Amino acid sequence: MVPQLTRAQKFDRSILRGAFLALYWILYVDPLTGEVLGLALGSLPVLVGVYRYVESDQYVVQTLAGLAAVALGGGAPATRLYQTPAGNWLAGS
């Protein structure tokens, strides 16, 4: 029997999806100018997760926390790694 995920765990997964999507877009798809679009695309799973898994009285707090996690977890590493030896190794360019 596979245990079911709780609503909080499902929301955490949506934050991880958003951070991964932002990191992937910024590093691989458009490394020169993709920061804003990458963060916008990364925020979409968070917003969907807030709508589906968070109680209505926590919308604002959880949205801000999720978007901060996407910005710090998805956008910050990519912009710091760009044109560094570690970033070149990771992105393969």
Key structural traits:
93 residues; mainly alpha; 77% helix; 0% strand
Provide an overview of this structure.
It contains four helices and no strands. With 93 residues, the chain is an all-alpha fold. Helix 1 (7-29) runs antiparallel to helix 2 and helix 2 (35-53) packs antiparallel against helix 3. The termini are far apart.
Describe the SSE topology.
Blueprint: H1 7-29, H2 35-53, H3 59-81, H4 85-91
Oligomeric category:
single chain
Structural class by SSE content: mainly alpha
What is the arithmetic mean of pLDDT? Answer: 83
Tally the helices: what do you get?
4
- The SSE order reads HHHH
Helix content: over 70%
Distance from first to last alpha carbon: 44 Å
Shape: elongated
Strand coverage percent: under 5%
Unreliable residue stretches: none
Q: Main sheet?
A: none
β-strand number: 0
Radius of gyration: 15 Å
Short note summarizing the structure:
The protein is mainly alpha-helical and 93 residues long. It has helices at residues 7-29, 35-53, 59-81, 85-91.
